[in-house]
Amino acid sequence: MRKLAEISYLDIPEDKKYEEIINKVFEACFKEENLYDYKIYISIVLTNEQNIQKINKEYRNIDKPTDVLSFPMFEKEEIEQAKINEEVLGDIVVCMPIVKKQAVEYAHSEEREFAYMLVHGFYHLMGYDHIEEEDKKEMRRKEENILNKLGILK
Description:
50% helix, alpha/beta, Collagenase (Catalytic Domain), four-stranded mixed beta sheet
């Protein structure tokens, strides 16, 4: 398997289970979007509520923790350029304590909630958003397609 993600931990313990889920999810995402044969990868940081709150405040001027943040390196129409060299597609920051809380809240497994955050972040890096209702439907369709292909349903 090639490198799809550069994984960092910020003030939470390393966990091989998280890394397995990251690699499985991104492999499916990259294959689905025909990116697997290119040298692009994603930088991912797994962290706690305090750190994601600082990042959220710094970059979005929202002074509260959130579940996932995505920082694309390319506009949607520029992704083709990223395929030429080894490039980072973007950064995803996931708050693992919030993932665990939301798994309970939504009656999902932690794996399902974490996988959803990863897929959601991936599609933000790909230029999708959920501001307009039509865009939201397209993004949700893509997210559910990946989770269904992986059999991560609950």
